[in-house]
Amino acid sequence: MGIISLEKADNLYWLGRYSERVYTTSHRYFTSFDIMLDQNEEYYMRYCEALNIPDIYVDSKDFVQRYAFDTENTDSIISNLYRAYDNALVVRDYISSESLAYIQMAIYEMKKAKANIDAPLIAMQRSVDNILACWGCIDDVVYDVVIRNIIKYGRRQERLDLLLRLRGSRTDLKRIFSELEFYLYRSNLKFNRCAFLELALILEQDIIDYPKALDCLEKIVVL
Amino acid sequence: MQELNKHVNDVNSLLARYGVRFGIYKNNTFKEQLFPFDTIARVIKNEEFAYLDKGLSQRVTALNLFLADIYGEKNILKDKVIPEDFVYSSSGYTPECEGIQPPKSVYSHISGIDLVQGKDQNWYVLEDNLRIPSGASYPMIARSLCRKASPSTFKSNHIYDNRNYAEMLKTTMDYVNTGGINVILTPGRFNAAYFEHSYLAEQTNSILATGNDLVVEGDYLYYVEYGGTKEKVGAVYRRISDEYLDPMTFCEESLIGVPHIFDVYRKGNVALINAPGNGVADDKGIYYFVPKIIKYYLGEEAILHNAPTYLPFYEDDMKYVMENLSKLVIKDVAEAGGYGVVFGDSLTQEELEDFRQAIIAEPRRFIAQEVVDFLDLDVLDENGAVVQRKADLRAFVLSSDKARVWKSGLTRFSRNPDSAIVNSSQGGGFKDTWVLSL
Questions:
Q1: Which of B119, B165, B337, B351 has its CA 20 to 30 A from that of B180?
Q2: In terms of residue numbers, what domain contains B314?
């Protein structure tokens, strides 16, 4: 196809970001769920603080339900999944009905998981599987490499963002940054070179200035 | 078909998977709903479809000629076949289109003709839709899923493949394309038919665009890429109604249109599919004159019948309508989507009187029709039992060098046993339409 408007590029970028957010936060949620079972019931507070999202939860049980499944909570996993869907829906002609269907199925699985109050993680795992299937499908059926690269750039930016918030290791940060650089140059997106270079420098420092790194990261792509 | 019916839930699940929905606004809130699908297809025999094909082609060919005449020479008015006032007072008549000849002189590229089959087995045309008829994508995707659910059904029956609709649409777009890419212009994802817009863009390999993606520069229309380069557009299958298409020509408050797109069209530098101004030909009032239109332009008798229709605009018809109001269907010509349709026998005496007064006050606003006793079709109810429901058929005619009828169609049915209103916006479901090839 090869013809992408600014609006569509924005949708592809945010499809990448939201789908990655769902994927990564789901895994973090699984870990938190496990820790809260028998180690630290208040672990969710640290989680909220690390991600810089408001701790609106009464207790761990409330967190388990509302952080994952509350559509009124804009920080919840399901809300982010719906945002991924919103962006995917308007680029059906770029990513194909097949790829879009996996996001739709991820939503259905999340709804099933919500209904399973005692053990929501099994159906949630299927939701995450569908996100992976969507990415795989896009890789398989989308002929235009630029379309794929915009989505992948969005995913790397989101992954790096979350990793910075969660104070990830330098090794992990540099690995994701290197992938981000790879897709940035291949996505043809306009970008702020100064912010990009500054972030590269920050990641080389002995002590990483995480807030500054996050600030630079947000400024890289100009859409 | 019984084998396929076992999979009705599977097919509906697959339709949900692919986001086959339509949107409706209720109480100022947008809601997306699944479009219930019934696996019992409407079956049209080969020879019966040949008759429909001939009648539909004839009708659409004549309506295209009518549009060219109305916005051109106006011979049909000069020859007093249709009263002049009737055309000029139609809300679909668009003075801005006067003197404009669209590329290759095609006005209605995609026509959706609504038909019903009476219990007497005769087909009647209920309505012509020449503006932005929707619905072809539903039987197209349903067919592909039904073939997965029950391959043997399609191996043992000789059914024309309807999955060629996208190819027919692309051919239609290419035929009038003035040089450039094909674009499907959508109002956005909160439009009732957004699924169709995005699905047809995918299937025809066109660009799905919103008004923000398009810009007019130097008498041409361009699609603006995110890097700033511009790609010339040669054909726009617009799914935006005339009034919102160009704020510089029509409704100036429109935020979903493309400023100056009409100027580009006027200069012949882009094809708009369907052409603006078509509303004058699918007006419920003009419908009455279609047999005369066919006779006038083609010198032939209409092959397909209209439902018996009365125009209160005429004195004799007014008299008949006043005397028989309780047994007629009254339609407000300004309404669509099944709204503004009232069955006289459902009204109280007081309501009938109110309607009488409304018709007398505004005779041009209403048409009245005899109630056609539809042939009921078999439908699977929620429990899997076969019940009978009212249904119509939207046939699609695509016009390029000539009119071609798609060998399928959207069969809509009422899910309410007491209603003949089949529109999806009012809770109706849909079926595939099988045209037998032998």
A1: B165
A2: 308-370
